[in-house]
Design a protein that fits this description.
Helix content is 26%, strand content 33%. It has 171 residues and is an alpha+beta fold.
Length: 171
């Protein structure tokens, strides 16, 4: 009886502890998508960017509930019709965390050695030099996604698997 009881207690703890989404929260990206369409796509009048299929995907899972979400348009020197956007998801307070998404429709180059990984069936590249800094990039439908996560304390750290889960959540 003790073995069965121990087994019944141990299995749920093991399953919860091994879950790759234990620290992630669901994020409703519809409002951010609406703002993006109204403030960037419509003013540009670019046929390429007005097509629904060429709009960038955004995350539906985040490593924290954001206190602030910022959206930056491209610098003025980018040609009209270029896609260069930065989305910042911020968690403020004593335990600061920052998830930054950069979306471009041009090649990006890095001086860092990335590890090849899979994001669903898409090839991606992962880099981390410490638990408080992670980078992940991939190309989907000719759009380059660069995801960067910075955490100021261990209670905001996420695993490599959780970071990949965030990338897989893009819709």
């Amino acid at each position: 009886m003790k073995k069965i009881l121990l087994l019944l207690i141990t299995i749920p703890i093991f399953v919860i502890g091994c879950s790759s989404e234990a620290n992630l929260v669901t994020y409703d990206n519809e409002e951010l998508t609406r703002i993006f369409k109204n403030e960037f796509v419509q003013p540009k009048h670019s046929e390429e960017l007005n097509e629904e299929s060429s709009l960038p995907k955004l995350p539906t899972k985040l490593p924290f509930k954001p206190d602030q979400v910022d959206f930056s348009q491209p610098p003025p020197h980018y040609e009209e019709g270029s896609l260069f956007l930065i989305f910042d998801f911020l968690s403020k307070g004593e335990s600061y965390a920052h998830l930054q998404l950069q979306v471009v429709n041009m090649e990006t180059e890095y001086d860092t050695d990335f590890e090849a990984i899979k994001i669903g069936d898409i090839e991606g590249f992962y880099y981390s030099e410490s638990p408080d800094l992670m980078l992940l990039n991939w190309v989907e439908e000719e759009i380059h996604y660069d995801l960067k996560y910075v955490a100021s304390s261990s209670d905001k750290y996420i695993s490599k698997e959780e970071f990949i889960t965030i990338a897989e959540s893009f819709k």
